[in-house]
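# nightly structure sweep
# worker-07 picked up a monomer target from the shared queue
# config: single-sequence mode, recycle default, output format = structure tokens
# input follows
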Amino acid sequence: MFDVQEELKKLPGCPGVYIMHDDKDEIIYVGKAINLHNRVRSYFRKNIGRGPQIDKMVSLISRFEYIVTDSELEALVLENNLIKEHRPKYNTLLKDDKTYPYIKVTVAEDYPRVLFSRQMKKDHSRYFGPYTSAGAVKDTIELINKLYQLRTCNRNLPKDCGNDRACLNYHIKQCLAPCQGLVSKEDYQQQVKKALDFLNGSYQETLKNLEQQMQQASENLDFEEAIRYRDLYNSVKQVALKQKMEGSDGEDKDIIALAADEQDAVVQVFFVRNGKLIGREHFYMTHASGTSKPQILLDFVKQFYAGTPFIPRELILQEEIEDMEIIEKWLTGRKGSRVYLKVPRIGSKEKLVELAAKNAMLVLSQDKERIRREEGRTIGAVKEIAGLLGLTQINRMEAFDISNISGFANVGSMVVYEKGKPKKSDYRKFKIKTVSGPDDYACMKEVLTRRFVHGMEEQKELSQKELENEFGSFTKFPDLLLMDGGKGQVNIALQVLKELELDIPVCGMVKDDNHNTRGLYYNNKEIQIDRSGEGFKLITRIQDEAHRFAIEYHRSLRSKAQVKSVLDEIPGVGPSRRKALMRRFKSIEEVKNADVETLSGLDEIPESVAKGIYQFFHAQQEQKSTGNDATGQGTDY
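# output follows
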């Protein structure tokens, strides 16, 4: 038995990390301390104004443990790692887990390349970034390769020089072909230097050279080349115009500010590189009610810069945070050179912080409005449906539909909505096994029986903890069953549930003569529903989704059966080759349109069989065009 008061007496007066557990032994909070004895004991003192959320957290503590470290810096690193691993409920958590793109120049190679990278490694390459747009990074790399004709291949040069012929990039004037020895190492390195200058923001020389080349090509009446230089000139100018905000110091810095309400916070970061604002990004934080802005800012800095590969020379903060010196020391150690944390009071940096704060507030307010509207469409709509049916609460809804054409390829669909949103990971398709012919009621009975019997069997195999974690798509039963039809479909569902001794409300989605939803059928009566309300719109979306999912599955089965039946007629095509063709080609039309070379490109299809497939389809086409088809109607595909 864990005695809190006794354990508090044993706490050492040294740096470390403390870990709070609840009665289920789950970690609910992780913190660091200069003095574990003083810090942990402070949680269990009464009337010290900690706030309701911290009081609630303390009331849940069943036991605590601690890890002693040699310094506060070690405690900071350990705290970050434990928070990232366990994501405790009462810690302020960074929601976003992004990796940002960099431009990597492999300057250590004899013939360097300009590459896209998500990681910044100590590999003697030069990195530019991070950038906020992967698309913009790829466009910039493409432009650089066009401008300076650098290689994009991964050949080991000069070792592999001359082993293969030059690639297409050389022929379209986007590579100098060092692989063929067509450019000296010195000349190639000169082009690399120009690319590095470009990435450092030096555009004027490039623009000047492109303009001269464009004029020269025009004077030589080489208008195609003049157009190429003109397009490159415009592309460079577009990149140059994006760099509107410049600093005089040319330093790398991140400007960090936030806006917060009772539960959420948005942190806005402006990325300044070489004195230029290259982009901005916002990050969502969840926090306990009453958490101060400096504390949220501190948690963001620790969590974000523990994971990002690039750390700028300066972090410009909105407010002073706790442990600024130790954070500086930690970031300096990670970067390998001095890092400064600053809180500007006047001047251009203060204006940038104010601008970042305004952006954070705008994102937060807009997000709240978007969430409010989204909740109206989802949770609000579910509450409206629950009110119409007289149910206390609905979380999970499952809808079923049957699809066939005159009884061919009977299939069923199950779509799942939780809190008014589709949960596509729990969607399921059923190929009807026991019913032949167009009997929708019998098909629906089979689908529902299989769904719930499967779920009951899974439940028996799982522990209570696994069930609480919603393990398995069938183990969690719906709060409401929605049938794509009226009284008949509802009665089938009620019959299945009665046989399985399950108590789940069943509601029919009734349609009018034009196949539009007009109301709900529940407890042997039709309930009218406001067509302008969110509940009606949600029911319609669910009904359409169940119908779409069933039809798509039925269509895919028809397509496969169609391909299978036609391919079976071709000499030399057995089950394995038929499967290979079905994997490679999505429809019979694609097989018909493929040439011999494409067909024989499959490992399972030799050239002789590929010729046979090609001739089979093209002979049929000739029969059609001359009217000699034996059936008089052509082949049914």
